[in-house]
């Protein structure tokens, strides 16, 4: 059942040489999959989004990034990259006390929207990550960001999910696939391209 995730398991049954060949082939296949997803990124859309983000940041706004699970690390990585370039950025996934407190008191669906109520300013940018595009707390966070006039941006897979149905969402990037590890690698590429457009703070 887990062969597709861990192709090297069971190597003792096949022999070391066969296992190494299998791992090498798997690595090439994964590289090809990621390259194909990256070729599908709409560079014009990236440029438009990057310029819009840059405009907000130049006006004193900050990047507020969020997501669940592996997407939470995408959010942390994005915030770290923008901070390294000199821009204000916060990953709403970093504060375990806040997340668990909100989840316990008012429900997990509110862990990002409640933080946005407390932290967000109109010139800020909300950058959401959801491989399914339908995580309820991510959708709720973007809805709150929209109410507060933030620039709303999302990166997803699986055809876009619920996020594709939001008519007010300013920028949406959909990686055309359903294998989460490869999707998240494509999502990281979108962030790096956006930062290339935004540039470093002078």
UniProtKB/TrEMBL annotation:
Gene3D superfamilies: Glucose-6-phosphate isomerase like protein, domain 1. Keywords: Isomerase. Pfam families: SIS_2. InterPro entries: GmhA/DiaA (IPR035461), SIS_dom (IPR001347), SIS_dom_sf (IPR046348), SIS_GmhA/DiaA_subfam (IPR050099). GO terms for biological process: carbohydrate derivative metabolic process. It comes from the Bacteria. One of its GO terms (molecular function) is carbohydrate derivative binding. Residues 53-202 form the SIS domain. Coiled coil: none annotated. PANTHER family: SEDOHEPTULOSE 7-PHOSPHATE ISOMERASE / DNAA INITIATOR-ASSOCIATING FACTOR FOR REPLICATION INITIATION. This is Phosphoheptose isomerase. It comes from Gaiella occulta.
């Amino acid at each position: 059942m887990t062969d597709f995730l861990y192709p090297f398991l069971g190597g003792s049954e096949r022999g070391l040489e066969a296992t190494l060949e299998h791992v090498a082939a798997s690595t090439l296949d994964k590289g090809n999959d990621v390259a194909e997803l990256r070729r599908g990124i709409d560079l014009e859309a990236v440029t438009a989004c990057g310029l819009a983000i840059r405009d907000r940041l130049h006006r004193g706004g900050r990047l507020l990034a969020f997501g669940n699970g592996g997407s939470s690390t995408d959010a942390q990585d994005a915030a770290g990259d923008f901070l390294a370039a000199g821009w204000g950025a916060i990953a709403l996934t970093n504060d375990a006390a806040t997340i668990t407190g909100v989840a316990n008191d008012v429900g997990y669906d509110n862990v990002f929207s409640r933080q946005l109520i407390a932290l967000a300013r109109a010139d800020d940018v909300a950058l959401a990550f959801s491989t399914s595009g339908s995580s309820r707390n991510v959708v709720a966070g973007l809805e709150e960001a929209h109410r507060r006039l933030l620039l709303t941006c999302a990166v997803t897979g699986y055809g876009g999910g619920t996020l594709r149905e939001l008519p007010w969402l300013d920028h949406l990037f959909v990686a055309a696939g359903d294998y989460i590890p490869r999707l998240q690698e494509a999502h990281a590429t979108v962030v790096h391209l956006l930062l290339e457009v935004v540039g470093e703070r002078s």
